[in-house]
Amino acid sequence: MEKVKIRRMRYEDIPQVVEIERDSFPQPYPPPLIMQILSYFPEGFLVAEDERSKKVVGYIMGLIEFGHGHIISIATSKEYRKRGIGSALLKELEDILFKKYNVAYITLEVRFNNREARLFYYRRGYMDKRLLPRYYEDGTDAILMIKKNPYIQLPSPPVVVSMW
Ligand SMILES: CC(C)(COP(=O)(O)OP(=O)(O)OC[C@H]1O[C@@H](n2cnc3c(N)ncnc32)[C@H](O)[C@@H]1OP(=O)(O)O)[C@@H](O)C(=O)NCCC(=O)NCCS
To answer: Where do runs of H (alpha helix) occur along 14-140?
Structure first.
């Protein structure tokens, strides 16, 4: 992970982000939509930058929707995968959403057949919530995954002692 830094996404990063997206997903987000969401919640849009080449080598896009966190997309350039970049991006976004904004949970949709991404999320505390049939335009199902805010201490339920 040395030589790669995580920072906020800038408008001028968008072409590089789109390139990584196109290389990673069958249906990438259109750049105008990325720009629109970036302006709506800039804190949730992060990139990993190779400090030597200044190239964007990974990104994550997240926002707050109806009071909970939502990960829209995450990807690392193919040649930079399995070096801890995806984990660092996810951790940084989780810190913003869970610690700063105190959201109760984060959700995301992932292709049912995207085994690598699903395992990546399971190992980082995400669980399957439900199946979203034919969620993607090409008819592929999605899995809605969820992670609860580990920093929120819910009060213990009251102990009820029955006398009868
Ligand atoms: C999912 C994705 C973002 C992960 O990105 P990444 O940068 O490879 O993530 P990391 O390197 O942090 O972790 C990937 C694995 O590499 C391992 N790894 C990390 N550093 C490593 C190293 N130095 N040497 C060997 N393995 C390493 C991690 O432990 C992890 O395995 P684990 O899940 O068993 O713990 C990436 O595979 C990707 O871009 N996929 C295509 C897009 C996609 O599917 N996105 C998700 C859709 S919702």
So the answer is: 14-24, 31-40, 85-94, 115-122
Distance from Cα 10 to the centre of ligand 1, integer Å? 23
- Total-model pTM: 0.93
Ligand 1 atom index nearest CA of 123: 33
**Taking Cα atoms as reference points, which of 59, 61, 88, 85 lies closest to residue 72?**
61
Q: Is the CB of 107 under 6 A from ligand 1?
A: no
pLDDT at position 153 is 75
Pick the CATH number of 4-108 from 2.40.110.20, 3.30.70.560, 3.40.50.1100, 3.40.630.30: 3.40.630.30
